[in-house]
Specification:
24 strands, F-box_dom, four-stranded antiparallel sheet, mainly beta
Length: about 375
């Protein structure tokens, strides 16, 4: 590693400006810059740099594909692909959720077998195994605090443990990285929907709470406030619920709740701009004439939004991944699974992802 930093304009800038410049680079460039000189290595290794990088990365939409349980492929909105491995976990796992650059993984287990959960950062390879809980859950959600100081893992649904709850209730075990403990939250369900109907399209963590969208009619948001240990429900506005035959998907959009409504002809993206006052607005409305736009037959194929920013939306259709650039209203084919020899796979999973340097352990915790 060079002892002296680059000369010229960059070398004469204050550290705060250099940090802001470096934090906006692609992750590969950041890791290379870390080896330029001792001073840059110190800046990039600082906790503040990881925070600033995570804050600006919300505008960088990516998709992570879990191919084999240890091999991960990452696609960006420009069609670039990179690959990382989870071999540092030293056990076979599959990814359950992704948030703020961290992944939550679990081991494979058959009936009666033990399931272990891990949280890791695939960029830094830092990882930790969560305390054993003895619970199987259909939904596993990861919530990483924007400060990077803590994270939560929620095992959600009619969780199977030693003491199953009564019918009409939902169980949710939540791990808190600050206390390194699990806590159970019980929710009394309403008659108009069941917890098993919670959407498999994921959960969104904003404003200190995890939000799930249900498949009930009308669709509602089920909310667990992690800061106050409080359950609540949020109704979607009438203008979103007007489509009787629409399918609703739930994503984050640069730190905000977003609902994507898909019908036979249209895809409409809504964003909760003002959380406290429940103010939604329409971000985009686009025609879904796929055969004309993409020159391919997508009849009978499910459209799955995976990741988005205010500028781009990445979605999968069948074995293809597309990106829609909202400003130019241009569709692009990012890749086909068979282009990468993946057509023989029985299944693969896709998650929104953005590369960060956020830690998955306490700053003073030295075990990985």
């Amino acid at each position: 590693m060079a002892a002296n930093c680059p000369e010229g304009i960059v070398g004469s800038l204050p550290d705060c400006i250099v940090t802001e410049i470096l934090a906006r680079l692609p992750m590969k460039s950041i890791l290379r810059a870390k080896s330029v000189c001792k001073h840059w290595h110190k800046l990039i290794s600082d906790e503040y740099f990881a925070l600033r990088n995570a804050q600006v990365s919300v505008r960088n939409s990516m998709v992570m594909i879990d191919v084999t349980g240890t091999s991960l492929k990452f696609l960006d909105g420009l069609g670039g692909m990179s690959q990382l491995s989870l071999d540092f976990l030293e056990t076979e796992v599959f990814v359950r959720d992704s948030h703020n650059g961290l992944l939550c993984c679990s081991t494979f287990a058959g009936e009666g077998e033990r399931v272990d959960y891990y949280v890791c950062n695939p960029i830094t390879r830092q990882h930790m195994q969560l305390p054993y809980i003895g619970v199987h859950a259909g939904l596993v959600n990861l919530a990483c605090d924007s400060s990077g100081r803590k994270f939560n893992v929620a095992l959600t649904g009619h969780v199977c443990g030693e003491n199953d709850e009564a019918e009409g209730t939902a169980g949710c075990w939540v791990f808190d990285s600050e206390s390194n403990t699990w806590e159970k939250f019980i929710y009394q369900l309403h008659d108009h929907y069941e917890f098993s109907m919670i959407s498999q399209t994921g959960a969104v963590f904003v404003n200190g709470a995890i939000h799930w969208i249900t498949h009930a009619s009308p669709a509602i948001l089920l909310v667990l406030d992690l800061s106050r240990n409080f359950w609540s429900e949020m109704m979607l506005p009438d203008e979103i619920l007007q489509g009787q035959d629409s399918v609703f998907y739930f994503l984050e959009c640069e730190g905000c709740l977003s609902v994507i409504e898909i019908s036979d002809s249209w895809m409409v993206t809504w964003v909760l701009e003002d959380y406290d006052n429940d103010v939604w607005y329409m971000l985009d409305r686009v025609s879904l004439h796929w055969q004309t736009l993409l020159r391919m037959d997508t009849s009978g194929l499910e459209i799955n939004p995976v990741s988005q920013t205010r500028q781009d939306l990445i979605l999968s259709i069948g074995e293809c991944m597309f990106v829609y650039h909202r400003n130019s209203r241009v569709w692009k084919l990012m890749y086909k699974m068979d282009d990468y020899g993946l057509t023989d796979l029985l299944s693969y999973t896709e998650f929104p992802f953005r590369a960060t340097l956020l830690p998955c352990c306490q700053i003073d915790d030295q075990h990985h």
